[in-house]
Structure formats: structure tokens, C-alpha cells
Backbone:
DNA sequence: GATGAATGAGGATTCATTCAT
DNA sequence: TATGAATGAATCCTCATTCAT
């Protein structure tokens, strides 16, 4: 008998048995959230707007998500998972050993394609409360991607100091996000043009660090 | 102190004094706004918070600005003006003809310095409601900077097609903003490291387009 | 005179300068809150209901109180202060030395009168989230009264052990609150009858501990 | 399918024939409700929380109870019934004739014991929306107890006027509830101490009305 | 011009209750 | 019967903006 006010939230990870309908609703809500996040950004997105977009009442939204943040987190996780499932195999030893131009093509093309199909991904990653400061709830998503980049760089050039590797990773990811925003902000030929620019930029940035030639995995 | 009842006599005859006092208020409010924008971003910044930070009442704020947007616009314009005044002379023909590395140093160093001293500048430029889509009120500021970059590129390489020049400009500016965000997000040695990374990135991106060697202005 | 130093900025910023209108509004809101608390109890009282009762918009309420709790706290403090100002002098040495019946009359009559005029006082003291567990925000009010009772008992019978004194205090206060609730819940002759019953109960409870005869203060 | 053992005096033939399983469910729900009422009080208890505590869905709860109030009513009735079954025999003529101290022991000890084991009882009786005003749904429970007290007093002292008897009853019950709240709010030695205080208080209050000596039932 | 007061629509979230499977 | 889904009004609170002094 020690707690007076706070409990209620039975977080005990009891995996809720959801009906098929509920699973559908969740997807519907996440789709709606993706729409709204893209339209207005995470911070300005209102749960009511998401519910409306999904064609349900506010209460229904809260049947599946405890709060706004959880929607973004779940959306981010699903997108991340889907991206890994679909394009997670690009970091094979063979690919990493390709000449830099081909390596970038191999990595970026599916990545860009995925993001064009799922622009909410970038919206989540970029949602910040202050310039440069990510909302906590999206940091994990952000980090999970950055980790993969870091690993790629580390494998490609194991001689980099941890600091340089970290800086290179962060900067490369920042460039990618910046270019991706341009790509998503345009269509058709313009979009294609920015794809080229992004690759050029990353090539120019990474070439001195990773080398342009193909390499073979070290024994 | 000692100009107490001077105002009462005539409301219109002393516009200078009123302006001076008003100007002080405006600067006070803009300083406060800069603070708050940096802390919370433009969208999340509340006019009440700005007024509080400035030590005045909300009503006073609205005596000088018709709405929240106008504050950002005025702040942006002033920052832009100050930047031009302070660092507007870097785009001289001699500078533009420098080897790329020196050119970047010449341009970026004061630019970065200015932005470190005035982080609100980036906050404004980055404040977006959706990824990649700037709030209307900041587009002008954004464009004015981009125009200068475009001009620099055009002068340095007059053979570029307008389209390529536009793409290069946009991308270069995007890279700059991305790097600047990293720079402002760190301090001390880390910050310096990201300055280097940003320069590296821009060098790598621009070298193929602008050439690395010094050039002399064409007749 | 001398509104001349208008430039003075109050750096302290904590003590809000309120206009007379605001002070009036606060009283109005507290009166409304008292009404609503009495009608529905603290927990069920809604801030919107309080604002409506006061004839203002919800926003106005929040101009003066940061949240619902603060309303109750301020109301409690004001009532407590007023009670002390009005009836705080009953615990004089002479009174404490009176025969028990007269002592109770002396203490209870103004106390009851005050509570009949301000029934919100009891509403606050009794507001609990679980039976027997007071809401934090009202504990202070509760304790401040109990302390006075404890002191009275201690002066009247200095030989009581601290434990017995504490138990007696708590129980006597509980009896008082229980009787007061009955008193406030009735009117006219019924009310008077319960006043008598309450005094009887307290007399019967306290007589063995405090003695029925008058005592003189010990040196 | 034998509905044969219809010893139903239930003339109205409620469609509510409960099966064993339903009965179990009901008990489950009432137990959960008791828990939640004790934790948060009646008003703050949510039907969802009760269902969760019972491990069933909200829909199931509403299959057995038409609304939240009905849960409290049924819980109260069951507790009342159990109390009567277990301790209902204390009001025998012999007991009523005991000396007051023993009479109180005889009545209060099992009463307190029962309430310690079933704290929801007090929670229900005390759940009020406004100080002193019981929620309708619990008035009946409240009255049924008070009636028994009234009867006891009437038997013990038949000369009391109906008014005095009513006042004494109400006050005595109020004292009991107040003391009981203290008892339930403490544990161990403290709890025992408050048991003593409660008995002292009731003794002091009732002695003048009921006399302290044992009496024999009048013919 | 300066102030604090006032507004009210809108934000996130909850909850008693009903519905559909 | 049991379940989870669905509802929508109500909750506390915020904020850009306007008003009165």
C-alpha cells in the first residue's frame, strides 16, 4: 500500500490480443499519421487531425496508442523494419567492396526509392523541437540508421579513428537527409536531378575517406 | 532620464524620439524572439513567451508586430542585413578567383562565425512545417541567401547551364545548412571538427563544378 | 506623480503586478470555485465549470491560476487566513483554562459560524482521492488546523505523552469534521441540534483527557 | 434442463437468471471494483479500470451491470448482507443490556474487523460528491446501517424522543465512520490506538444518552 | 505607448457506454 | 457470452490575438 495516485497504466506488456479489425485500424491510423506528419510535421500534427484523416473518432485512436508520441514511434519502427526488410541486404561484403560510385548507387537507389514511397520517414527523422535537437521519441530511429552507416564506413575503412568515423558518419547522414529533403520536395526530372546531386555530394565527401576504388574485405 | 512630460504636449511633432524608443523596444523584442526561436523552434515559440523573455506584456508586442510571423520576418531581415553588412564583401572578384579551398575558407569562416553568434538565423531558415517545405514567411530570407550563392557559382563558372547552376546552388546551400546545424549543435573541439567536415563536403561537392584552382575573372 | 521612469524594467518578474481588475477577478474566481467545490467536491469540480460560474472564459482562469490545484490551494490559504484573523485569538491562556464546556463553546462557536459562512473550507479539507487519503494540495491546510488543536491540547494537559496527544488531536479533529459535515448538511433547528450533538461528542471525548474543570496555566 | 427447483418467491421472474459462471464473473467484477474503489475512491474509479482489474473486457462488465452505479450498489448490498450474516447477531437483547463499554466492544470489534477486511465498505459509504451529501446510489446502504443503530438506541433507551434518537443515531454513525477512516488509514499499533480512541469517543458520546450500566429489557 | 485582462477555439487525453463480431 | 472496437462529449490546459485602461 504505498502508492497513492500513480498507477493505472498497466504497462505489464501483456500482449493485447487484437482482432483483425484492430490491426487494420492501426494500419489505417498509421497511414493517416504518415499523411498528417508529411503535411504539417510531427509537432504541428494533432491527434484529432490524425483521427479525422483516418475517419475515426479521437477515442478510437487512443484505443491503440497511449499518446501522440507512441504513434510516431510505432510508425517509425514499422518504416524502419520495412526498410530493413526490403533494402537491408545492401551492406553485404561484396557491395561494400565495390567502387565508391557503384557502392553509392547500390545503397542510395533503394533508399531513395523507399523514401519517395514513404516520405513520412524523413518527416519523422527531421522532426525537431529546436534546430539540431531531435525529439527524444525519434532519436532511436535516427540512431538505428546512423549505426548502419557507421558500420559501413568502419568496414570499408577500418583504419579510421573512432572520432573521425563518428564525424564522417554524422556528416554523411546529414548530407543524405539534406539531399533527400530536396529530392522529396521535387518531382519528375527535377527530382532525378537532385538524386544525381546528392550522389555527387556524397561521392565527393566520402571519396577521400573511403577511396573510390573497389576494395576487398580484409582477412 | 528627465524627459518626463515632453511627450504629453504633442503626439506627432516628435516622431524621432518615439521612433527611437520604439526602435529600442523592437530590438528588445527581436532579441527575445531570437532566444526563444533557438530554444524551441519557430513553430513552438509562443508570442507570450517572447514577450515574457523581452520583459514586456503581450499587448506591447502586438503594438510593434501584427502577428507572430512578422516577428520572424523582421528578425530574418535584420539578421540578413547584418550579415551582408559584416560579411557581404567576401564575394569580390579577387576572392572568387581564389583556389577553391581558400575561397571556401574566405566565405565560410565569417559565415560560420556569424551563425554561431546568431544561431537564430539557422533556426529561422530551418523552421519548416513540413519536411522540405519552408514556412512562407522565411522563404524570402532563404532565397536571398541562395541568390548570392547562385551568383558566386555563376561568376566562378559562367558555362554552367541555368539548370545545373540552380541545382548546384540549391544543393550547396542544403549542404551548408546541414553542416551548420551540426556545427551549432556542438561546442569546442567537436564544433571545430564539424567545421572541417563541412568544408570537406562542400569542397568535394563543388570541386568538379567550380574547379579547385584559382581562376581569373573573364573579361 | 512621476510616471517618468517608464523605462524601469522589473527584473524580478516574479511578483506579478496585478491590476485592481485582476485582483477582483481572482476573488470572483475563488468565490466561484468555492461554490463549485461545495456543489460537486474538489475532484469532480471542473475548471470550465468554475470559469463558467465566474462568468469568464477558461483562458481567463488560467491567467491567474496555473492549474486547478492552485485554485484550491489559494482558496484554502485565504480561508485559513481569514479564519485565523477572525477567530485566531480564541486560544488565549485564559480561554484554555476555562471549564471544558465553556472552552468548547468559546472555540467551536466561532469556528462553526465561520464554516457555515464558508462551507468550502470543509469541502477542501475533506476532498480526498481515496478514503482517508487527502489530496496533497490540501494536506497543508489540514495540518495547519490540526497543529493548533494539538497545541491547545498540549497546553491544557502537558502531561500527555506525545503519542496520546497526537492520537487525541487526530481523533478530535476527525470528530469535529464529522460533526461539522452534519451541521453544514442541515439548516435551522436541525443544524442547531447537530451543533449541540457535536459539542456533546467532543465534550465526552475530551473530558477524560483534558478534565472538565477550569485550570490555570502552569508557571 | 430442470428449472424444477423453483423455490422462487421471485414473482417478477426477472430475465436475469444468473448461471454459475455468471455468478462467478459477477463476484470477480465486484472484487475488482472493491479494489479499485479503495485505491481511487468511487468517483475516480473508471469502469475500464475495474474491468482491467478483473481481467475482463469492458463489454463483459456491461453484460452484468447496466452502469457504474449498479456496481457500487451491488457491491454495497453484498457487503451489507455479509456483514449482517456474520455480525448481525450482535443486537440481541442480552447484548443490548450489557454495560456500555462491553456493549461497544461487542458491537464494534466485529464491525471494525469486518471493515478492515473489507475496506471497500467505508469507501462506498463515504463516497460523496459534495461534503455531507452522499451519492444517491449509496444512500440506501448508508440508511440500512443507520437504521440498525437507531434501533439499538431505541431499545436501549426507549424514552428518547424520535428527534433526539435520530440526532444521536446520525451523530454516532458519523463518529463511527470518522474513527473507522482513521483506523483503516493506519496499521499495527497505530491502528489499535485509534480503535481505542474510537471506542472512547463513542463511549463518551453515548454514555449520557444510553447510560453506562447494564440494563434489562423492559417488559 | 504600455499593461495586464480577456477571449475562445483548439490541443491531448479520458471515460462511461454501446456496437459488432 | 465475451471480446475488443468505437464513440463523442468532457477534461485540463495553451495560445495567438484583441480589449480596456
Residues:
Amino acid at each position: 500500500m504505498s502508492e497513492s495516485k500513480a498507477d493505472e497504466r498497466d504497462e505489464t506488456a501483456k500482449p493485447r490480443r487484437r482482432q483483425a479489425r484492430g490491426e487494420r485500424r492501426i494500419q489505417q491510423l498509421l497511414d493517416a499519421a504518415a499523411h498528417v506528419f508529411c503535411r504539417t510535421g510531427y509537432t504541428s500534427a494533432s491527434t484529432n487531425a490524425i483521427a479525422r484523416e483516418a475517419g475515426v473518432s479521437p477515442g478510437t485512436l487512443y484505443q491503440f496508442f497511449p499518446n501522440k508520441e507512441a504513434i510516431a514511434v510505432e510508425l517509425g519502427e514499422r518504416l524502419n523494419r520495412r526498410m530493413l526488410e526490403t533494402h537491408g541486404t545492401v551492406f553485404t561484403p561484396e557491395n561494400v567492396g565495390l567502387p565508391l560510385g557503384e557502392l553509392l548507387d547500390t545503397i542510395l537507389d533503394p533508399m531513395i526509392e523507399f523514401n519517395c514511397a514513404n516520405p513520412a520517414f524523413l518527416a519523422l527523422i527531421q522532426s525537431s523541437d529546436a534546430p539540431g535537437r531531435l525529439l527524444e521519441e525519434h532519436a532511436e530511429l535516427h540512431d538505428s540508421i546512423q549505426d548502419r552507416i557507421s558500420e559501413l564506413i568502419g568496414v570499408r575503412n577500418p583504419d579510421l579513428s573512432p572520432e573521425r568515423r563518428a564525424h564522417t558518419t554524422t556528416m554523411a547522414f546529414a548530407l543524405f537527409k539534406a539531399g533527400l529533403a530536396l529530392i522529396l520536395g521535387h518531382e519528375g526530372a527535377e527530382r532525378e536531378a537532385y538524386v544525381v546531386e546528392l550522389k555527387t555530394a556524397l561521392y565527393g565527401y566520402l571519396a577521400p575517406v573511403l577511396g573510390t576504388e573497389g576494395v576487398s574485405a580484409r582477412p
